[in-house]
Amino acid sequence: MPLLSSQAAERGPHPVGVLAFELESPAGSGRKLPVEVWYPAAGAHAGDDLSAAAAHPFGQPHLAAPGAAAAPGEFPLLAFSHGNSGLRQQSTFLTTHLASHGHVVAAPDHVGNTFFEMLDLDEDQRKAVHLDLREWRPLDLRSVVDQVLAGVTGLPRIDAGRVGVLGHSFGGWTAFKSPAIDPRVRAVCGLAPASEPFVGRKAFAPGELPLRDGLDSLVIAGRDDVLVDLETSVRPLFARLGESSRLLVIDGADHFHFCDGIPLLHQSHFDNPRPNQSRPTRPLADLLPQDRMHRLLRALVTRWFAAVFDAQDDPLSALDVESVTRLDGAVSVGPA
User: Fold this and answer.
1) CB under 8 Å to 119, separation ≥6 — which residues?
2) How far apart are the first and last CA of the chain?
3) Distances (CA, A) of 47 to 20, 63, 97, 221, 249
4) Average pLDDT of span 141-152
5) How far apart are CA 288 and CA 256, in angstroms?
6) Residue 3 has what pLDDT?
7) Which of 173, 38, 149 is nearest to 103 (CA)?
8) Are 190 and 165 in contact (CB under 8 A)?
9) CA angle 149, 150, 155 (to 5 degrees)
10) Rounded-to-integer distance, Cα 245 and Cα 188, Å
């Protein structure tokens, strides 16, 4: 039975566990990545109180029990890529929600491009990091998929035929680069995905777009995003993805509306505007509040991945105009 958008907005049937490990990416490189994994845990229902909320580097505790016993059964795998100057735990409101609906979600730190590493770099140093990480980021996601499919103690069994990737901003670009080097990827979701001009004229190599036949993709963008502009970055990327793709635009969403702690991150961005912004940052009071934005993203992303991995449902029709508008009038479907 297809999952309805209203059902996808609510916490799923599974309690959620979380564990951390380290891997080498790529194998033999000596480059060590911390990885966090959220997974369906054993328990009667999602509300089971397995332990205190898991810690968060920005003081945003999330609903996951460290080391909880894995649920029986076999589950899809999603690899999540954080944004430029982000962290693997930047969107736990979404990663834990997906796990509660029966997904194993693994997120690496893209070492060299994390918040704490980028904090004190000047502009030239940042550009050098961005160039280096264009090579490493897609390999990081492939390494995570390799490791989890090979087996990680404490995780549930993974269905190797149901593998997806998702990411925010620079991580959205990373996700859309992944299918070219990892044929196991069946679905890609980009949240405010960066492309040209942030990544540069060579954001994608010849032959990488459109995405291969049989691969579904979803783009969710903020109409008020001043860092990854809807018109100059998102729409040109979406136009190149192929026919099995869907674009959703959320009114009142800026760039950090896809992360935990929206008020904290947005205020910092408002107080410290980027010199190359396309337009001024709007005050948070004029934009969607966190609870509404997070509910939207939980519902949209969960509903879409459920449709991709459920042969009874059509991913393109799963997020049609009527169902999305019924969920929240702030969302537009297609090129609007």
Assistant:
1) 85
2) 30
3) 22, 10, 12, 31, 32
4) 96
5) 11
6) 83
7) 38
8) no
9) 65
10) 9
Work out the number of other CB atoms within 10 angstroms of the CB of residue 308. 24
pTM over 0.70: yes
Nearest to 247 by CA among 208, 217, 212: 217
Cβ 208 vs Cβ 180: under 8 Å: yes
pLDDT-derived band at 119, boundaries 50, 70, 90 = confident
What is the amino acid identity at position 307?
A
Q: Which fold has domain 5-333?
A: Rossmann fold (3.40.50)
The residue type found at 94 is L
CB 6 within 8 A of CB 327: yes
DSSP state string for 107-125: EE--TTSBHHHHTT--HHH
Q: What is the rounded CA–CA span in Å between residue 305 and residue 303?
A: 6
Contact 319, 333 (CB under 8 A): yes
More confident residue, 49 or 220: 220
DSSP 86: B
**8 Å CB contact between 114 and 85:** yes
Q: Across residues 207-231, what is the average pLDDT?
A: 94
Element (H or E) spanning 331, and its range? strand 331-333
Identify whether 34 is preceded by a cis peptide bond (ω within 30 of 0).
no
Report the C-alpha gap between 200 and 275 in whole angstroms.
17
19: β partners: 37
What is the rounded distance in angstroms from the CA atom of residue 174 to the CA atom of residue 83? 9
Axis crossing angle, helix 123-150 with helix 170-177, rounded to the nearest 10: 50
163 burial via Cβ count (<10 Å: 0-12, 13-18, 19+): buried
d(CA 64, CA 68): 9
Indicate the SS3 state at residue 9. Answer: helix
